[in-house]
Sequence to fold (472 residues):
Amino acid sequence: MSEIRDKLELELNKYEFQTDIDSIKNKESYRKRKHRNIAILLSSVAIVFTVVLSAIFLANSNQDVSSNIPSTVNETSNSHSFFIVASALDSETGKPIGATADNAEVLDKDMIMMQSCLSYTYYVSGNEKYNGGYDPDDERLEEIFAQEDLTINKVFSVMGDESMWVEGEDIIKVEYKTKNGSLFKWTDGVKRKSIILNKEEVYSPERVVLWRSSEELLAWVEEQNAHNGPLDFTTATKDEISITVTFSDMSVATRKLKLYYNDYGYLVVETEDGTKYNDGELNDYENWYKKVYEYDENGNPIIWDYSGRKTQ
Amino acid sequence: MRRKTPLDFDLIYLEYKDYIFRTSLLYLKDYHLAEDCTQNVLIKIYRKIHTFKGKSSLKTWITGICINTCKDMLKKRKHVQNIDETIPDKSADFESLISVTEAVMSLPLQIREVVILYYYREFTMKEVAQITHTKISNVEYRIRRAKTLLKEKLGDDFCE
Fold:
């Protein structure tokens, strides 16, 4: 049988392997680099995954601890929570300015904001020296208000809107009630004393409700126009809104909000624990809109952190 | 026998590259597949050379890697075609192929395997059993079967 071996040797010896040794070594080096890169990539992914999981875990823990601590009144003993979310609306699009409540981060916070204020201008007539329009911060207004022969008309415009909706866990029903004013569903514009949203309506465009102090506010405006002095917002219409939420396990929770105008025409929202939102000062609406369009270092709109007060 | 000095891949490459290629060629019956196989075997040797402890001969170790790599490549290729049923490649690379090589290539895989190792590479039956992970009795049977088949193909002169 050695003849077979010899014959095979003879026949096969003409075939030689042509690939050079450097090519072999390079392929192995490339493989090592590739494996190292994959290992680094997998390690990075694992680290990022761990960090994200930790962050989610911590966020959930914090949410459990802090959710609705300020003022949720649970009428039955339950662990549910909900958030009242409100925002100024874009006058052209009718959509909330800045972030919407679809952003899950909103749920980390206790958001009650009705960013609305009455902007106004004094129009003076009856004396050529004073005739003209004056902004609320005009220094000449004190002198004008001291004149008895002048006619001073106040022209109002509303900045922002009083839209609100709720966010939270397993909500199947929301009932809004107002004590003095009116409520409007965002979609139908029909005025009511109370509005009930059921199930799918709760998390749809139907969920947005607007508060209007309506006739009382108009009456106040007319009354203010009847005298020449400065506006007295302490006499402006006030209201209370209660929001009752029913959860899927039929437990119920209620929050009550006080609404009133501060000295500068801002519609302040005060919660049960005395926290005031939108408590702005003169010309704060300029800052207000600036705030709306500001973003934090993570690129998230900071509208939700804005209380309406001047930046310290 | 324990080796006390590190193996030099460059020397192994020079000494075994054609040995591996020709063994692969006979086993796989495909020139280009044999090239790929040889490259893979050499890469494996380059990668694993530090793990060789000298418990067997270097030739046995390398041949074991070669046979296992050939088997792996056949498994992969079987997804495309049943290579054991194909005739030897008659491309330009094999234009001068002559009868003995062709006769060995035409043998069933398990028979061809022992012919390559026992006759062509001159391993003992025990070593063939070790490399192919089979019993010596199986190797003996396959060698007997190989003789019979080769006689039929090459005539009695070759198998005496």
Residues 1-84 of chain B form a domain with the Rna Polymerase Sigma Factor; Chain: A fold (CATH 1.10.1740.10). Confidence is low (pLDDT under 50) at residues 82-93 of chain B. The interface with chain A takes residues 9-10, 13, 17-18, 20-22, 25-26, 31, 35, 38-39, 42-43, 46-47, 93, 96-98, 100-101, 104, 115, 119-120, 122, 147, 150, 154, 157-159 of chain B (CB under 8 Å).
